[in-house]
Amino acid sequence: MSSENRRQWNPGDKRFARVALKKAQILQAAQRVFLSSGYERASMDGIAQEAGVGKMTVYRQYADKRTLFIACLNDQCQEMLMPDRYECAETAEEARSMLIDYGHIVVDLITRRDIVMLFRMMVGEINHFSGLGDIFYEGGPGQAITVIERILANLYCPEEARLRAGAFFWASLGDAYERVLLGVVSAEDVSETFDKQIRLAAGIVVQ
């Protein structure tokens, strides 16, 4: 069956559901393999074995290891960052409230153990994987900053909204994130600090 015909399946079609389930199964297995072995040592054979499927099943979904790794990065961030959840705030008070809410979503995601491990692994692979940093940034921080920028769009000109969005994102993470990333503390240990950072950042960015 051609890829064109597959795209025409009804979402209720059992074949569609099986393909989606298999794809999720492969992504989850790939993430485990990449985290345990690193990008260079991971293999499509190993990922297929971890997923409990044939290697050709993996290749039917993903052309190569690079494509699969990029899919893993995007899958980790896309749903959790909720890019379509927030619209433009109409007032400064509404913007601050929305930023605090979204700040917690971002911090909860970016300090999750699997995401922290993925980031650590990615840093070690940047020299071997051209464009990896761009991929990770656009899928994670870049996407979150775009959401924040949209929240602020009615209150500031585009350039200032972008600058304030970036400032809010990084101020929300602050020193607490650096300590989590380095394994000095757990995210739970500094949850109150993150809350204070997020609220302070929202108050500074929207005045």
Automatic annotation (TrEMBL):
Cross-referenced SUPFAM superfamilies: Homeodomain-like (SSF46689)
What's the protein called, per UniProt? TetR/AcrR family transcriptional regulator
Q: Which UniProt keywords apply?
A: DNA-binding
Q: Which InterPro entries does the UniProt record give?
A: Homeodomain-like_sf (IPR009057), HTH-type_TetR-like_transc_reg (IPR050109), HTH_TetR (IPR001647), TetR_C_Proteobacteria (IPR039536)
One Pfam family of this chain:
TetR_C_7
DNA-binding region residues: the ranges are 43-62
Domain of life of the organism encoding this protein: Bacteria
Domain HTH tetR-type, first and last residues per copy: 20-80
Q: Which PANTHER family match?
A: HTH-TYPE TRANSCRIPTIONAL DUAL REGULATOR CECR (PTHR30055:SF146), HTH-TYPE TRANSCRIPTIONAL REGULATOR RUTR (PTHR30055)
Keyword Lipid metabolism assigned:
no
Keyword Plastid tagged: no
